[in-house]
Write a structure and sequence with these properties.
It is a single chain. About 30% of the residues lie in helices and about 20% in strands. The strands form 5 sheets. Strands 3-2-4-1-5 form a 5-stranded parallel sheet, sandwiched between helices. Strands 6-7-10-8-9 form a 5-stranded mixed sheet. Strands 12-11-19-20-21 form a 5-stranded parallel sheet, sandwiched between helices.
Length: about 500
């Protein structure tokens, strides 16, 4: 049975600018083939088992040729897969989407086209430049700048372009800008016509340059501007920056790597994106079931023998409850136990199940939990602690020292996750301004991942930690910690990042 290919426009860069249809298809895709200019944060929306194939498409250095991309789409669809061909901007505007559609049709492969927001309009808007404006410009022409204006037979009518009163927007034209400027002036366009160049538009690295037609080429010759950049020629660029709205987004200059486990990271990501950051999700750890449930099963079958049940994370609640259901243990068997929860989210998970919490510490660290439990329990009390065995030993040792009997049982396991290829490349290139650490294990496991990829942990990798214990672990692993949450939650981490970096220019900007 044949699958289907979706030619999806990923938008100009900001991952929030993909269409709802495009985002939905990414979630459903079995294979995604993506280009160099696609913002990799869009890959956050793919399923865990989705195959991600980097097509490259960098000028002069293609990871896959166009012919190979065409054949790959046909091969995957012939196997019955749902394939997303993810392209920057709009697939039918200088994106070779038409050629790919022709190839798919010639090979009887069903396909659909999902338009994307083009950089020709979005990038100027992110720089505060309207493509058209009443009493200034009532038309706009989008032109490929990749064509050499000096070739014998240009496909552009330069005389018409130079003599019009509308806005000219050139894509892929940085290398040819000196010749484009000269051609327009030779055909009669005024040398003082305003020009705007927007580099890496809609991304954290966005930079805007405002000049004139006569001086624009000089910026390129002096290597002030690098591709990809959108070039706007016309009166609408005269007041560039006056309409700039992005300064209201405190994290607009940051590219952040969120290492929180896959099932937990969307909340933090959405808060950061709402403040203007571009966030790539790449869990540093996988949360899995233990190799054996024998010890947990034994504890559950004798649950009435315990005085306290202590949960240190939402994961502990999740796996504990799942195992109770699998063993068909009645929740009423917990009636005689007192419950403790570390963290408001952990407590919330228990309260959703209709349980009353006897103790939630003000500070979500082992020291505070230990003190609170010692105050509320008695010598000889039996305490069940279902959690990962990679956690700190302070709590268990402190309780046992004061005469409490503690059964620390593995309810779930944390292990290092594999880094996606694009994340490894971007970390090696220093493209992330900040890495989030929401537990000590995320820091330790990311260090393990980086070493496996041959990437050195240095002071260039800055992190933000959910609390002081996590911060200490990250520093020991070699990371520079720039922000530490005072409230040990995702919301607290978000506020710490905004407090530290709000409005600060990225070193990549």
């Amino acid at each position: 049975m044949s699958g289907e290919v979706f030619l999806v426009g990923g938008g100009p860069g900001d991952p929030g600018l993909i269409t709802c249809r495009g985002r939905k298809l990414l979630k459903q895709a079995q294979t995604v083939i993506y280009d160099r200019l696609v913002e990799t944060a869009l890959l956050n929306y793919t399923a865990e088992d989705c195959e991600l194939i980097y097509a490259g498409k960098k000028p002069g250095d293609h990871s896959l040729t166009q012919a190979e991309i065409n054949e790959l789409m046909v091969e995957k669809a012939t196997r019955g897969e749902k394939v997303v061909r993810l392209k920057g901007g709009d697939p039918f505007l200088f994106g070779r989407g038409g050629e790919e559609a022709d190839y798919l049709r010639d090979h009887d492969i069903p396909y659909q086209v999902v338009p994307g927001i083009t950089s020709a309009l979005a990038v100027p808007a992110y720089a505060g430049i309207p493509a058209t404006e009443r009493n200034v410009s009532s038309s706009v022409t989008v032109i490929t700048g990749h064509e050499d204006p000096d070739k014998d037979e240009s496909s552009h009518d330069w005389e018409h372009l130079a003599g019009g009163a509308g806005t000219l927007i050139f894509l892929m034209g940085v290398g040819n800008l000196p010749r484009i400027s000269r051609k327009l002036m030779d055909e009669g366009m005024a040398a003082d016509t305003p020009v705007a160049l927007i580099e890496m538009g809609t991304c954290p690295e966005q930079r805007s340059f405002f000049t004139t037609l006569e001086e624009a080429g000089m910026l390129v010759r002096q290597d002030c501007v690098s591709p990809p950049a959108v070039i706007v020629v016309g009166e609408v660029a005269d007041n560039g920056g006056i309409k700039d709205w992005r300064h209201r987004q405190p994290l607009r200059n940051l590219r952040i790597l969120n290492t929180r486990p896959a099932h937990q990271n969307r909340g933090l990501t959405e808060m950061l994106e709402g403040a203007g950051a571009v966030v790539r999700e790449a869990p540093a750890i996988n949360i899995t079931a233990p190799a054996s449930f024998a010890k947990l099963d034994g504890a559950l079958e004798n649950i009435e023998s315990y005085d306290w049940l202590v949960f240190t994370s939402q994961n502990g609640v999740k796996y504990f409850w799942r195992r109770m259901k699998e063993l068909k243990i009645d929740v009423r068997n917990l009636a005689g136990l007192k419950l403790a929860a570390i963290g408001s989210r952990t407590a919330g998970s228990l309260e959703e199940k209709g349980l009353r919490i006897d103790f939630v510490p003000d500070e979500f660290v082992a020291e505070e939990v230990l003190e609170g439990l010692l105050e509320r329990s008695e010598r000889g009390d039996k305490i069940l602690l279902p959690r990962t065995l990679s956690a700190r030993e302070l709590l268990v040792e402190g309780l046992e020292k004061e005469g409490r009997e503690v059964d620390e049982i593995e309810a779930y396991r944390t292990e290092a996750a594999e880094l996606p290829a694009d994340v490894s490349e971007d970390l090696a290139a220093g493209k992330y301004d900040l890495i989030t650490f929401t537990s000590s294990s995320t820091a330790a496991c990311l260090k393990e991942q980086l070493e496996a990829e041959g990437i050195e942990v240095s002071s260039g990798l800055r992190g933000a930690a959910i609390g002081p214990i996590t911060a200490d672990t990250a520093r020991r692993e070699g990371f520079e910690i720039a922000a530490v949450a005072s409230e040990y939650t995702a919301a607290g981490l978000y506020r710490a990042i905004v407090d530290e970096f709000g409005g600060v220019e990225s070193e990549h900007a």
